[in-house]
Amino acid sequence: MSHSNKPGDSAGAISDVAAPKTIPARASTRDSRRTTDAQPGLSGLADGVLEKWLGETGQPAFRAQQIRDSIWRHNAGTPGELRGLPGDIRAAVAAAFRVDTIDEDEVTVSDGGLTEKTLHRLSDGALVESVLMHYPARGFGGPGRPLHRERHTLCISSQAGCAVGCPFCATGELGFGRDLETAEIVDQVRHAARRLATAGHVLTNVVFMGMGEPLLNLDRVLDAVAILSDPRLFALGARHVVVSTSGVVPGIRRLTALGAQFTLAISLHAARDPLRDVLVPLNRRWPVAEVVAAARDHAYATGRRVSYEYVMISGVNDTEADADALARLLHGDLAHVNLIPMNPVAHTPWQASSPERVAQFAARVRHGGIGVTVRANRGQDAGAACGQLAADRAGEPSAPAVAHRREVIVRASEAALRGERSIERLPGPLEAAVKERAAHAGGPDRR
Ligand code: SF4
After folding, report:
1. Which residues contact 112 (CB under 8 A, 6 or more apart)?
2. In 3D, which of 215, 188, 204, 225 has the Cα closest to residue 25?
3. CB 182 less than 6 A from any atom of ligand 1
4. Residue 168 alpha carbon to ligand 1 centre in Å
5. Which architecture, in CATH terms, is 12-24+103-440?
6. S-S: 8 plus which of 25, 298, 376, 412, CB 3.0-4.6 Å?
């Protein structure tokens, strides 16, 4: 799930206090049968797939390590960059697998170079986005030792489009396209790492808050996290990864059962059901109390603080009553709230809360005993709202369609503010996605 209106950095405060830790390769959930891709990406392959393929094509098994070294140590992006392979084997590898699953990148730089938003074109033409955010070292911790080290955080997509349909989100407006393959998720990271390497930097954090609801593509998201955390592959500590969800309760329960060591983020956006039914339509399937109960169990089972994302929308979810409801909801929990001013998107009539309102809201929630961070919005001059660039490519909806959509949103939010719960069913595509996927979220049985 994107959480949407891009957070300034949802991983920041968490990764600052957490010790780097990698999960052992053995804990991987990767399953070679999971891909349906006729020409899978090399970066998403499960253990043993390359060895099996080499055996079937009469090649020695040691070539597998050469190929992995090219992908992970040298970040190969083309067949020509597969090192140490004779030409015929290189050609055979390139015919059976994709060295890179992303065909083209369009990078937009903003915030004086601190934010790079990339529109990735995948091989079937699908468009997904990632955002790379740079955080220079700051503070003084002693000679040559900054208090906060330099960080480079990448926000990635797990699906092309999204079925959840949050009305403040440009991706939600696009609708659902398809799940990303594991390699398509991982290659967004490899692309960012390549760009960083040219400037002598390394990627420090990955957050699954781009396009899509990660827990509705959970098997592949887990595979991608396992690859990114594997010390033999990308070697990013699991504690430097954040996976967010708009509230797929069976998926959260599955993460808890697995003892996942990455940070769980809940895209909450409202603490009261009537309003959350409107802002996060998945709430009509799993109401806020169920979502928070699952997140609470997760926090206590893993010892990992849960992060709650809250997009601040002027006059809609930023009232004193909302702040009090939020403080009550999370009281006593291992939880932290990130407040993110909304990025304006074309189809909604809403605007971001003012900085003063955000500060008052934060103070009130803190007074209720909950830790709060106000996140700066990144990339406002570069289509910062999640899915904004892809939506621009998809073409503007007609003016009457936008006007109608705005009217519906206003009516629904006004009713919600009066405390009336939505009697609307889940939107059709979301209902289908929930039926098809969430039912399987309890176990790795989707092949
Ligand atoms: S519509 Fe999807 S991508 Fe957008 S905020 Fe909601 S869950 Fe995230």
Report:
1. none
2. 225
3. no
4. 9
5. Alpha-Beta Barrel (3.20)
6. 376
C-alpha–C-alpha distance, residues 443 and 12, integer Å: 31
User: Cα–Cα distance between 270 and 333 in angstroms, integer?
Assistant: 17
Using the mean position of ligand 1's atoms as its centre, give its distance from the Cα of residue 93 in Å: 36
Nearest CA to ligand 1 atom 5: 4
User: What's the predicted TM-score (pTM) here?
Assistant: 0.88
Q: How much helix, strand and coil, in percent to the nearest 5, is found in the chain?
A: 40, 15, 40
Q: Quote the CA–CA distance of 156 and 267 in Å, as a whole number.
A: 15
Please tell me if the CB atom of residue 1 comes closer than 6 angstroms to any atom of ligand 1.
Answer: yes
Q: Which of 129, 173, 181, 309 is catalytic?
A: 129
For 164-208, the pLDDT digits (tens) are 989 888 888 788 999 999 999 999 999 999 999 999 999 999 999
Any atom of ligand 1 within 6 Å of the Cβ of 35: no
Q: Helical H runs in 45-104?
A: 49-56, 62-72, 87-96
Give the number of the atom of ligand 1 that is nearest the alpha carbon of residue 5.
5
Q: Give whole-number Cα distances, 419 to 202, 364, 370, 405, 429, in Å.
A: 48, 21, 24, 21, 26
CB 352 within 8 A of CB 341: yes
CA of 161 to the centre of ligand 1 (A): 8
pLDDT beneath 70: ranges in the chain? 1-36, 147, 346, 379-389, 391-397, 423, 439-447
Nearest to 121 by CA among 187, 55, 195: 187
Per-residue pLDDT at 117 = 93
Give the fold, CATH level 3, of 42-96: DNA polymerase; domain 1 (1.10.150)
For residue 172, the CA-to-ligand 1 centroid distance in Å is: 5
Cβ–ligand 1 distance for 165 under 6 Å, the answer yes
Query: 139, 159 in Cβ contact below 8 A?
Result: no
Residue showing tokens 């887990």: 222
- Identify whether the C-beta of residue 378 lies closer than 8 Å to the C-beta of residue 339: no
State the pLDDT at residue 164. 92
Torsion 374-283-243-211 (CA) sign: negative
Give the domain ranges of the chain: 12-24+103-440, 42-96
Q: In ligand 1, which atom is closest to the CA atom of 1?
A: 8
Active site residue 386: yes
Burial 48-67 (b: 16+ CB within 10 A, else e): ebbbebbeeeebeeebbebb
Q: Which of 226, 209, 217 is nearest to 262 (CA)?
A: 226
| Residue 265 CB–ligand 1 contact under 6 Å | no
In this structure, the residue with its CA closest to atom 6 of ligand 1 is: 166
Identify whether 129 is a catalytic site residue: yes
